[in-house]
Design a protein that fits this description.
heterodimer; A: alpha/beta; four-stranded antiparallel β-sheet; 17 helices; 13 strands; disordered N terminus; B: alpha/beta; 14 helices; 35% helix
């Protein structure tokens, strides 16, 4: 076994096999009392009994802990490094929120406990709904959707139900070309065809473009504001008015709400319905890819269509009610990602109204600071003030054969996570940087210095950048080959693997 | 409600602006504004129409200190009835013990503060753990491939139905067992949105999906059949028979398992003919947390891989030939295919896959079986004890750790148990008019023996 995954780095990065390769017959990581066969076996149909699962790991507790802690050390996280992943709002996650979500009165609460015995939990949810209504200016909130895209799906289902109730069959949804892929995918899941709207030369949607696209078959406009270029859609009020006058509705993608707190309320922008990504603006952890939470807020006209059950206050206290006949129904089990709701409310209470306003001001300050520091070194997609993020590109590096992906990989060597790359699609070779409000000026300056150094390297030592990263646990991975011959799991039948002598599904890869 | 009194030094309300998460000092702000070339923070918002800004104030109280925030939540948490050792409710969320090592791993900020591993070179921790998760889920469900998670069992099952409709584009009928979890059925209906024919297959006297009715309802227009395994009443379906019926008509069989511990002892859906196996992995390492987050499981056969929704992690090699892991087959996904994607899912339940993986590794090949055997034995003992005290087993089908029992006084006794801080399962009449006096009880390893005895006494009417 090799000691180091990367011969090029300083210090030891000990290799860590798959947990299946650590397995040895007879080990166990949790003591569970044995039950006599006679106590359970006769109760289950003999024809349906299975043998112990071939290949399932047999490992002790210390091995499990070491395995996963070593794996953790191969990750960059927003807590350990600057994580300027544009459009993902990778801000600091307050540590106390982790403790609060784990209070036994929350963590051990069964979702079907009668309402009168869960009033504390319902108060938390009611309070969070109240805060989100105040922040968005909208009339009603459902906390049920599990993620941003789930909220989009919910909102578009509500729009569909609204039109169906009015007996109109509208088939199209207008979506700016710069939108997240989830927008057209969510609209399509609701049976809509999508019409792409191009932005103007300064990156914005013009009322004229909307006027041209509007018609009796348009159900809604799905729009992100600020848009994914980090620009505020200045004509949003007029655009929303155009859509409304044409009988359509406005879905606001709330992915970039972190720029709007105390700046502009979604209701005033003309939004009829929107999702709120609690894992972005309200700081619940991104979890390596979830769980997020995507509450949906709606104007009074769309509130009857929100998912059920909904929380209502009665004389006897708070309770869940299914009594909303126009509701689109349920979009998942139980009441949403309660653990995330606790964290989000804790964050909102900690900051208060003024603190939340300060969040957006500082987020926009940081993004503009990076914009001006980097705009002489990298090509800025759209000039002028930005909101919470700014978009550069690899334009100008063609002579050196250095592309956006190379710049992103080289940043990893400098100890930073990479920005979002190749998105939005309307900017070729996009480098989308969102610093958030929780990074100090010193960190921002270090990032600027690293970016400038990479630009210098790209001109003077392009191969160094093209072959990056050099200081990470693994080098650049061959994603094309991985997709051509997908290996999506470890296979138990290779006995050598179980004995730890070689990886299972491919010939030995390590030296 | 009274909140714990706080010493004055932690009361920050109104005293200063809350800045503990915001590092910029006045000097920093001034320096950054100067670099940008504007005079004030307000100048940064010149693009926002003034009337919008004027109305944008957030009318919420001032921020709270950490101690105040903690006190607020401790007071609310204390108001809830949340005791695993007195919880006999399942119905899609199971009160299992979680070893401390699971939460220790989950609390590593390197895991929880990362995002979707777009940069694999600095995300190998998340990626390798996810590859292990996919392997464990595929093994547990007896399938060839599993994705890197969905939101929960209900949304995963609804996505499976949509996938079946994509694979059978000429067909419009979806058969759903009435013994499928009621909230799964509701979610499927929401996802279908009235565009397809949703038909429920009745339950027979044994508590299983009615095979005779299924024969009649299944036709050449049927895209899929969805059944629970075990089903909502805890009954273990004859899954192989149900799958063969829908296969005979060219449809797809979807099984959903929301108590995956059962699959430590029962033959997996993949072996019994299911084409898509979904479920919820909450039982493996995720606390109840009032029902969310859960963990949506989704597995299928290799040949259906490219129609599958959700993220996938695959094995890869780096430039030096070392093994690593990457997100793969992204051309199915929304960020590449947009409106033609297999699903709109983006963020999934990554951290819960880590809980599942850590838990499954700790219990391992034999621990899971022992735990499942213990659940089976305890549930049957409780059912036997209740039946000796005048309760009637509602269904005759074999069950794992959850069962339905009926009694003319069921509603009153259930209330009496609640008054004694015993969550005596969930009332079936909430979802099924046809089972008015029936409770659905679950017995995991968590309730103490004393609590089991007390429950029997209360439900038997022996305790006032």
């Amino acid at each position: 076994m090799s000691l180091s995954r990367s011969g090029k780095q300083s210090g030891l990065a000990l290799d860590e096999p798959l947990i299946f390769e650590r397995s040895r017959p007879g080990r166990i990581g949790c003591d569970v009392p044995e039950t006599e066969d006679a106590e359970w076996m006769p109760h289950l149909p003999a024809a349906l009994l299975r043998d112990p699962i071939e290949g399932f790991p047999e490992v002790s507790e210390p091995e499990v802990v070491r395995h996963f802690l070593r794996l953790s050390q191969w990750n960059y996280g927003a807590a350990t490094t600057f994580y300027p992943l544009g459009s993902c709002t990778m801000k600091y996650n307050p540590v106390v929120d982790e403790a609060l979500a784990r209070l036994p009165g929350f963590a051990h609460l069964h979702p079907l406990t009668p309402d009168e015995l869960v009033q504390g939990a319902l108060e938390v949810l009611w309070h969070l709904e109240h805060c989100l209504k105040e922040i968005t200016g909208l009339a009603a909130v459902s906390l049920q959707p599990a993620a941003g895209a789930h909220g989009e799906l919910t909102g578009m289902k509500m729009i569909r139900a609204y039109h169906t109730q009015r007996g109109t069959s509208r088939s199209k949804v207008l979506i700016p070309a710069s939108a997240h892929g989830t927008n057209p995918a969510s609209a399509a899941l609701c049976g809509y065809s999508t019409v792409s709207l191009e932005g103007n030369r300064i990156g914005l949607i013009e009322p004229a473009a909307v006027r041209r696209a509007m018609g009796p078959d348009v159900a809604a406009l799905m729009i992100t504001n600020p848009n994914t270029l980090g620009l505020f859609e200045r004509e949003m009020v007029q655009i929303a008015d155009l859509v409304h006058r044409g009988g359509g509705l406005v879905y606001l993608d709330g992915a970039n709400l972190n720029a709007l707190l105390g700046v502009a309320k979604p209701a005033d922008l003309g939004a009829d319905v929107m999702q709120i990504n609690l894992h972005k603006t309200f700081s619940t952890p991104h979890g390596g890819g979830g769980p997020g939470a995507g509450p949906v807020a709606a104007a009074a006209s769309l509130a009857p269509f929100l998912p059920v059950p909904r929380l209502v206050r009665t004389e006897a206290g708070l309770r869940w009610s299914e009594d909303f006949p126009d509701s689109i129904g349920r979009v998942r089990t139980f009441h949403g990602n309660f653990g995330m709701h606790v964290r989000a409310l804790a964050y909102i209470l900690a900051l208060g109204g003024k603190g939340l306003e300060q969040v957006s001001r500082h987020a926009v300050l940081a993004a503009n600071y990076l914009r001006v520091q980097l705009q002489d070194t990298f090509s800025l997609a759209y000039p002028g003030l930005c909101m919470h993020e700014c978009v550069f590109s690899d334009k100008g590096f063609e002579p050196y054969g250095v592309k956006t992906l190379d710049i992103a990989k080289r940043l990893l060597d400098y100890g930073f996570y990479a920005p979002t790359v190749y998105f939005p699609l309307v900017v070729p070779g996009a480098i989308m940087i969102e610093p958030t409000e929780t990074e100090s000026k010193e960190t921002l300056d270090q990032f600027v210095a690293a970016m400038k150094e990479i630009a210098r390297e790209a001109r003077e030592q392009p191969e160094l950048v093209r072959s990056a990263p050099h200081r990470t646990p693994v080098g650049r991975l061959d994603e094309a080959r991985a997709a051509r011959r997908p290996v999506l799991r470890w296979q138990p039948h290779t006995r050598a693997a179980a004995e730890g002598t070689s990886p299972s599904s491919e010939p030995p890869l390590r030296g | 409600m009274t909140e714990r009194a706080l010493p004055p030094f932690v009361r920050l309300r109104g005293a200063i602006e809350p800045v503990r998460f915001l590092p910029h000092t006045e000097d920093d702000v001034a320096a950054m504004l100067a670099a940008i070339g504007v005079h004030s923070l307000d100048d940064l918002f010149a693009d926002i129409p003034a009337d919008l800004r004027a109305r944008a104030r957030i009318a919420l109280p001032d921020g709270l200190s950490e101690a105040e925030v903690r006190a607020y939540f401790e007071a609310r948490a204390a108001q809830n009835f949340a005791r695993l050792e007195r919880c006999f409710a399942g119905a899609g969320a199971y009160p299992h013990f979680v070893p401390a090592a699971v939460d220790h791993v989950l609390q590593r900020a390197e895991f929880y503060s990362a995002y979707t591993p777009y940069q694999p070179e600095v995300s190998q921790g998340t990626l390798q753990a996810t590859f292990e998760f996919q392997t464990l889920v595929a093994m547990l469900l007896g399938m060839e491939v599993a994705n890197a998670s969905m939101y929960d069992g209900a949304s995963a099952t609804a996505e499976a139905v949509l996938m079946a409709l994509r694979l059978r584009p000429q067909r419009t009928r979806v058969l759903v067992s009435r013994a499928l979890h009621p909230q799964y059925r509701e979610t499927i209906r929401t996802y279908l949105g009235g565009n397809f024919e949703y038909v429920e297959v009745p339950v027979d006297a044994s508590g299983r999906t009615d095979v005779a009715c299924l024969h009649q309802q299944c036709d050449q227009n049927t895209a899929a059949l969805v059944v629970g395994y075990p089903n909502f009443f805890g009954a273990i379906e004859n899954l192989a028979e149900l799958c063969s019926i829908v296969h005979a008509h060219g449809g797809l069989a979807i099984s959903a398992t929301w108590e995956v511990l059962a699959l430590a002892l029962l033959r997996p859906p993949g072996e019994l003919g299911a084409d898509i196996a979904t479920g919820d992995g909450q039982s493996f390492g995720t606390p109840l947390s009032y029902g969310g987050p859960g963990l949506g499981l989704f597995a299928t056969r290799q040949e259906l891989l490219r129609a599958m929704p959700g993220r996938l992690v695959g094995q890869a090699q780096d430039s030096a030939g070392r093994r690593g892991f990457v997100l793969t087959l992204a051309t199915r996904e929304q960020h590449i295919r947009r409106e033609r994607a297999t699903s709109n899912i983006c963020t999934n339940h990554g951290l819960m896959t880590l809980a599942f993986t850590t838990y499954a590794c700790l219990l391992g090949k034999h621990g899971l079986r022992r735990l499942a055997a213990r659940n089976t034995s305890r549930a049957h003992r409780l059912q036997t004890a209740l039946c000796a005290k005048g309760w009637e087993a509602r269904f005759a089908a074999p069950f794992f750790n959850e069962f339905a029992v009926a009694h003319p006084q069921a509603q009153a006794r259930w209330r009496q148990a609640l008054a004694r801080n015993l969550l005596a399962g969930v009332p079936l009449w909430r979802w099924y008019d046809e089972y008015p006096d029936t409770l659905l009880l679950c017995v995991t390893e968590s309730p103490s023996d004393a609590a089991c005895e007390e429950l029997v006494a209360v439900l038997a009417g022996e305790v006032p």
